[in-house]
Design a protein that fits this description.
By secondary structure, the protein is mainly beta. It has two domains: 38 residues; 122 residues. It is 7% helix and 42% strand. It has one helix and 18 strands. It has a ten-stranded antiparallel beta sheet with strand order 1-2-3-4-5-8-9-18-15-16. A four-stranded antiparallel beta sheet has the order 6-7-14-17, with no helix packed on it. The protein has a two-stranded antiparallel sheet with strand order 10-13. β2 and β3 form a beta hairpin. The longest helix is centred in the first third of the chain and has 14 residues. The protein is globular. The termini are far apart. 18% of the residues are buried.
C-alpha cells in the first residue's frame, strides 16, 4: 500500500496479481495522479519516466538518463547533438557516455566556485570475461545484451580500462574557468589551464576540477 491514508493508497499483492511490470507501472502512475500524489506532467510521459520533482528523466526513446538539478547536471546514455540543462550545455562526440557536473561548495552551478566534472564512457576490468545470454533490439533500433555473466580471475584486483569521452561543456554564465585534470587520488594530473569552455579530451582522466576565479 502506497499513500498516507486509505484515501491515498495503491493496493498490490504479488501472490494474486499476474500483470506485467509495465502494466503495474501504468496502473500505479494513473492511481497516483488520480489521488493528487503525482502531477499530470510527471511519472510516465510517452517514452519517458519523469521524477516527481521533474529533475530526473529516463528517456527510453532517446536512450538517456538526464539529471537537471541546481547543483548536479548531466546525463548518461546515447547523446545526439547538444544537450542543454539549467546552467550548462554539453556536446558529446562519443556514442555512449556519462557526463556530470556537480557543485563542490553547496552553491548552484550558476554561481559555484568549485565544481567536479565527471566524464566516463564504457569501462571494464582488463581481465574480465563477459558473456551475454542473448541480444535484443530495442524500439529505437539499438542492440543491447541481456543476462550478462562476468567472471574475473582475481576479484577486486586488476586495472579498469576506460574509453575516453570527447565532449565540450559550456556554462551559460560565461566567463573564464580554471580546469585541472585529476588523478584517481584526486591530486592534480597536470597543470591547470584557463578556458571558457571545457574540452574533456584534453587529458587522460575522467575527473576535472573546475573553478571560477
Amino acid at each position: 500500500m502506497i499513500g498516507a491514508s486509505e484515501k491515498a493508497s495503491f493496493v498490490f499483492s504479488r501472490a494474486t496479481n499476474k500483470k506485467s511490470g509495465i502494466e503495474l507501472a501504468q496502473e500505479l502512475d494513473e492511481s497516483l495522479k488520480k489521488q493528487g500524489l503525482l502531477a499530470p506532467d510527471r511519472g510516465i510521459q510517452g517514452d519517458s519516466l519523469v521524477s516527481d520533482t521533474g529533475e530526473v528523466i529516463r528517456d527510453f526513446g532517446k536512450g538517456l538518463l538526464i539529471v537537471n538539478t541546481p547543483r548536479t547536471q548531466g546525463f548518461t546514455g546515447f547523446p545526439k547533438g547538444e544537450l542543454t540543462f539549467r546552467d550548462i550545455s554539453v556536446t558529446s562526440r562519443t556514442m555512449f557516455t556519462t557526463i556530470l557536473v556537480s557543485s563542490l561548495d553547496g552553491a548552484g552551478l550558476d554561481t559555484a566556485k568549485k565544481m567536479l566534472l565527471t566524464v566516463i564512457a564504457r569501462a571494464e576490468n582488463d581481465k574480465d570475461n563477459m558473456q551475454y545470454a542473448s541480444f535484443v533490439k530495442a524500439p529505437n533500433g539499438m542492440i543491447r545484451g541481456e543476462y550478462l555473466t562476468v567472471a574475473h580471475p582475481q576479484p577486486g584486483l586488476g586495472t579498469v580500462r576506460v574509453e575516453p569521452t570527447d565532449a565540450t561543456a559550456r556554462f551559460k554564465t560565461g566567463g573564464m574557468l580554471v580546469v585541472t585534470p585529476l588523478a584517481p587520488d584526486m591530486s592534480a594530473l597536470s597543470a591547470p589551464i584557463q578556458v571558457s569552455t571545457v574540452e574533456t579530451a584534453s587529458a587522460p582522466t575522467v575527473w576535472y576540477l573546475i573553478e571560477r576565479k
